[in-house]
Structures are given as C-alpha cells and as structure tokens.
Amino acid sequence: MNEISNKWIGKNTIRPDGADKVTGRAQYSSDTTMPGMIWGHVLRSPHPHAKILSINTKKAEELEGVKAVITSKDVVDFPIDTPVILGIQDMRWMCRNVMARDKVLFHGHPLAAVAATTEEIAEKACELIEVEYDVLPWAIEIDDAIKPDAPILHDHIQFEGKSSNIAGTLEHKKGDIDKGFSEADVIIEREFKTEAVHQGYLETHSCLVSVAADGRATIWSSSQGQFMVRAMTSYLTGIPQSNIRAIPAEIGGGFGGKTIVYLEPLATILSQKTGRPVKIVMNREDTMRASGPTSGSKSKIKIGATKDGKIVAAQGTYYLQAGAFPGSPIRGAVGCSLAPYDIPNAHTFGYDVVSNRCKVAAYRAPGAPIGAYGVESVLDEIAEKLNMCPLELRKINAAKEGTQAVHGPTYPQMGYLETVEAAINHPHYKAPLGKHQGRGVASGFWFNAGGESSAQLNITEDGNVVVTTGHPDIGGSRASIANITAELLGIHHDKVSVLIGDTATIGYSNLTGGSRVLFASAMVVTESAKLVIKQLKQRAAKIWGIDEEAIEWENGEARPAGDNAGKFAPLTLAELAEKATATGGPIGAGYQVNTEGAEGGFATHICDVEVDMDLGIVRVKRYTSIQDVGKAIHPDYVEGQLHGGCVQGIGWALSEEYIYNKDGHLDNTGFLDYRMPVCSDLPMLDTVLIEIPNPKHPQGVRGVGEVPLVPPLAAISNAVYQAIGKRSYSLPMSPPKVLKIIEGN
Amino acid sequence: MAKIQVSTRINNENIDYLCEPHDTMLDILRNQLNLTGSKESCGSGDCGSCSVILDGELICSCLMLAAEAEGSNIETIEGMSEGGKLHALQQKFLEKAALQCGICTPGFLMASKALLDHNPSPTETEVRYWLAGNLCRCTGYDKIVKAVLEVADEMKESA
Fold it and tell me: What was the ipTM of the complex prediction?
C-alpha cells in the first residue's frame, strides 16, 4: 500500500448525502410510499401493570376499511424462561415488548395492531378493540421495585432464592478494597440519583413493509441496523432471513434508541395478512412512552485517597432501571466509571432492576454517563477536601499505557492524560468567572466497539469508485469513508460515491452502535482497497507485459517501478477501467471481517454555568470538550459528535427527565414538557481534538461518538456546586430543585 | 362531509387540493402533494421540523389547517434551491457540517431563511432565539448558528 499522503484524510469534505438532505429529498422511513399501501396503528395499554384476561377484536374487524387485526397470537412466541440471545438483546423479551403476552407491563405497552385503508380508520379501529384487564399493583421507581413486598413483573426471575425484580448483576473487582480504604487519608461516600431520559431523536419510529404474494418481505425502516431489523423480524415472524430484504432509510437520529425493533414485525405480519404494503408511523407521544429511554438510576460511590491525592480505593454500587424487561446498561456504569484512573483497589457492582416502565434501549455510551456522574462528583469533593485542583487530582491518578483497568484490560497507547493536560492548559480553565458563576470539570471513558462489517468497492467503467457498506450513516460516516477511499486509491474525493447497502446487496454488518462504524468500516474499506489496487496492478502488468510486482500504485495511477521505471507511461484508474473488459473483466473487491482492536476513548470536559439565584435556572455559559479522537478522518463531523454529546449531557443534567404520575403513566410525552436543550439555551461550544492514533487501526481511528456524553453530567453538577456553594446529588438540576438547594431545604 | 377545495400557491406553482376539515397543512404537503421534505417530529408545534413560510411568515405547518391556505403563498424546502442551484444557506450548511442526521435540516433552513428575510444582519443572540423553536438533537446547534451568521455576513458583503 502506498504511504498515506493525507490529501483527503483530515479534510472537511462535503458529505455524499448532503445535497439531498438540504433540499428535502433525502428519504427517511416515513417519506416512503408504495402503490396500494395501507396504514397500521398500534393499540397500547392504558395500565402500567395488568393481566390481559381477553381481547375481543370483532368490532374492530367489522369497521369499514379495516383489513386486519393482530395480537400476540400472531407473533412468534419464545418461552419466557429460555434465553434466545441476539446481540445484546434477548428475543423472549423482544417478542413480549413488541406485543404484550398475558400481561401488560407498562403504560403504552402494545397489545394489538390494526391495518386499515387510512390512518384515521386504523386508529378508530383500535378504540373498538375490547380488552378485559385485571389491573395489578405496579412499581415505577427502583426503591419500589426492590422492596420486599414489591409487585413482581416476571415470576420466573429469581434473586437470592426468590422471585424478584432484580434481574441480574455485574461485578468488577481489583486488589483488596478493604485494605485500600484503610490506607486512605480522606474518604468520601455519597449517594446519587438520576432520572430516565430519552435519546430524543427527532424522527419517530416508522416503517413500511411489503410482503409479496410469494412471501418475500421488503422493509423500509429507520434503524441503526438493517441486519438487526432483518434478524429480529425473522425471529418474530418466522420468515427466513433470505426472504426479508431490509432497506435502510435515511435515519433521523438514533443515539442507540434505534438498535431494536418496535414496528417492523407488526407491519410485516399485517402485510402478510392483508397482501398489501403496510406503513406504521409512531407519533411523538408513543415514541416517548414506549421507545427508548435510558435508565434512571441510584448509586452509591465511595472513594478513598491519600493526602497527596493518590486514589487508593474506589467502590461503586449501581441500580439501573431496565424498564419492563431485563437488560439495563449496568456494564457501562460498572465498567466505565473508574476506567480513566489507575486505582489499585476497586470494586464496582451493578443491579439490573425491572419495573413498570418502558423497556430501556441503548443511549450513547449506555450506562457510562450514570457511572461517571457519581465518580466524577466524588472526585470533585476529594479534590476540594485535599485543597487540590480537580484536574491535578485526575492527572495524578490518570491511567496510561500499561495500566490495568478495573474492568480488566491493560491499556495500549491512549490519550487520557493528554486530555487532562490539555484541559489544565486551556484558556477556558484560567478565564475569570462572574457572580453566581461556577466552573466544573469531569472526565469520561467509553469502551468503543468492533464487530462484523462488510464493504464492497467497485470501479465503474468510467474509472470512478462506488463503495458500499452495511451500516446506517447517522452522523456523516459516508463522508469519512469517502475521504479514506480517496486517500487509499490516490484519487480525487469527487470520484468516490459511498452508499449504504441493504441486506440483500451487502454482506452482514453489525449495527451502527458502540462508536464502531467508522472504526470498522475503515478497516473493511482499507482491505477492499488493497484488493482493488492489486487488481489494478495486475491489469497494468498484463497491458505492459511485465510482472505485477514490478508495478507500484501511486497518485491514482499504475507506474512501472524498479528496473522498469520510466519504461511505460503510467496508466490512470480511468484508463485501466476503460481496458477492464479486455484485461480480465470488472474491477472490484469486497471484504468482510469481525473487526477487533477498537480501543477505548477518553475525554475531559470543562463547563462554566451561571445560576439565577431567584429562579434556580442554571445556564451553561461556556463549554469545552477535550477528547482523544484517535485520528479525525473528517474533523468537522468529529467536532459535531462532541458538540451533540455535550448538549445531550446538558439536557440530562439540567432539564430532561421522565415524570410518572400516581397512575403509573408517563406525564411528559411532548417536547414542551420533556425539555431538550434549544438553541437559545446554549453558548458556542469549544472542542479540542487530541489525536493519539489507535495503534490497532490502519488509519488510527478510535470511536468518537459516545464518549462526549460521559463527562457532562458531573462537569455541570460540579460547576453548579462552585456557583452556589451547595451540591446536588440528583439529576436533573431543574429550577425547582436548584432553588430548594439554594434555600437549603 | 364534503371535502374542502383549496387553491394556493406553493413554491411558485399554482396548486389545488381537496382536504378534510381536520387535515393539517403538513398532512397535505406530505401525504397528498408528496412534498415530504417537511417532517413531522412532534405534531404539536414544539420542534419546528415542519417549518414552512406562509405569506412571508415562518409557521409550523403541523399547527395550520390545510383549509386555511386558500389564496396564500407557501414556501417549502423543496422550493428553496432555484434551477438546481442551492440557496446560500443550503450551501453553507453543507460546507460547515451544520447537519448530522439531517431530519431537522429542512426546518432549520426554512427558519433561517425567514430570519434573514426579516433581519439580514442578526446577532448571535438573535439567531439563537429565532431558531429556538427548532429542535436539533445531533449538532448542539453550534455549527448551525455559525452557518447562519456566515451567510448573513456574506450577504452583507455582496449587497
């Protein structure tokens, strides 16, 4: 492979999908229609917990315009006590989440679906479905779900020998925790609480499914993985994967929330039954009530340090809401919270708690922000007690190459310390603060991920390049893949088109998640490019009648090298493409692999807030995020990931929360009451991209998308403390809560 | 009940449609006229994804009844570029990476255009408050605000 000239890597090129997106032409899932299409609607539970005694669909079926009504009996069942693992999901939960079986477990839980000629008729028909319930006591909050006489959601789930809502635990241990605390000069122990928050993608869930007369299904949907959609739909409908073509529509945000299915299996079954294409669009209310969110939590953090600031012991206990089915992201809390530090003695423990809430879905570094919130807040207190700069404390304890992490691995080359040093030296950290203003810092870690990826790189007959990969592009990954392809082939960026293939046109690719897409895509594209360059050299060798080894590929052309140097005029990609038929046929190659070597990502954030002492409103005045990004292939979109993550963190810390009322219903299902940050809430956001290449990646890529959501919760909380002199131990720090803290109640 | 006939002008073309009394403008744009660039993300006027310009004023098309459009002039995202040439805001959004997933982008572009139509040289604060009715979950708004301010600056220079 020729050396990287860095002509395109690191350039802020215009994204391949951009023109369609600024003109309204990009096709998101609900923008698609088909001839003969009808509409689906889902009936949802009005109760947080109830036995379903009977469902009578007769009146709905008789309504003019109704074409089919389905219930759980139409969805493939998986016995509740036998795991059927698919990625991080379990199909026995998934089948019950898409359609309640025997019991409804949360307000908004689907229990029937209708297909009709119009959306209005489908909705009306849902109202005509008669359901008899035996309403059961429910538990919404963690404390209510784990108390001794709590209503049990799933009788077969056992903890400590009896039925329980604690569905699982996870633990990491290092050293001797008791010995560690005995060596500490200062020990701080605190309890924290966070509320469930939604990913907040602006595109609600939707899909269009057409099952043809031969039983073959085509699915257009908004998801983070067309292969995930295919697999889950196959499991839940019994249609073999080879007969399902899942087409990834443009996706209007996911942040982890579109890594599972809600509507696709239902629309598929409705289409099977009616012989018509069926479209279902979830409204905002149902999206808030019955998709996402991530866990609310309670946790207890205890950290001990010597008087010179060396952390000698750290302990974290986390309870995370899973929603109605097991599977909260305890791994992120338990595994990431202490990862930035070199700590000799540590113990983290997580509990997965089911309750009568919507099943949680992944959300950007799932679990890690919750873990970091407690740890980074306690570190702030330790620094204060030791009269030490909080960044200095982090610098003293920073994990480095060779450090064994609490969650197990020994770190290779990585840049956590560099983020801390950059923060210390950043002008932001030294800037003066005004009245009622405070500055907070915090760090964070996310694992990042590898996994299966496929790419196909084809040379067109006119010498241009089409690259196809299998991961939905949420935030600009096509732009980065185009940069890498142009770089590797030594051609102009304009000659490269990048497409996301559907399940029938590209090999299996794991979903867009875990900050894995560019890491993995770049690997398979690099290998494909190597194969294509080999072919191009072979073609030139054939034309010139010399050995292929005597040819080098440089600047987009084959050149005779060594003894043959200068003997033949170079052949460009276009010239070789033109002669392809005569020299062996089409030029192109694909590569598929289970990628490995995704090393973790670290960040340190600085945040300034100003607190309105009369109203309790916290305003972010300045925000700087500093992150080891490996190699920024497209710096603007890397910055964009940092910006977006920080602002989601600002929402989580200050204004977003799921609020349940006394009936166990979610009370704030619209954007007016579920308050995500808006433009006027925010300042410009500063970023510092530190590039410590991932040694295990051909371009040095590290995942960048999730780390930015890990530090903000604590950075903002620490800043609020500095501003008002009192500390909040729960999120969000909404105006009434902050006012109470100020007033000392 | 009989449908209501409405004659209007959308993106400089005469458009007639029939609507139900309860149909929103957004329903008609998306489901009848196939102008799916306007998005429905909330249906309650809180997110701005369905922003269009009605007789010069920025509105949420999900909050307007389609029957109210009689005789009015509507601009949607589909009419923003002319003759295949992108509007300066569209071009700047691309150059400045002011979009990630892109679902909010049509709404932001319409809102930004309406802003610059009303106020060709807004301050950063004015941009932020004008765009406060448009939600973006991906970008943190930073690059969007910068793009709008840059276009305003360039318009001033070329004026």
Answer: 0.98
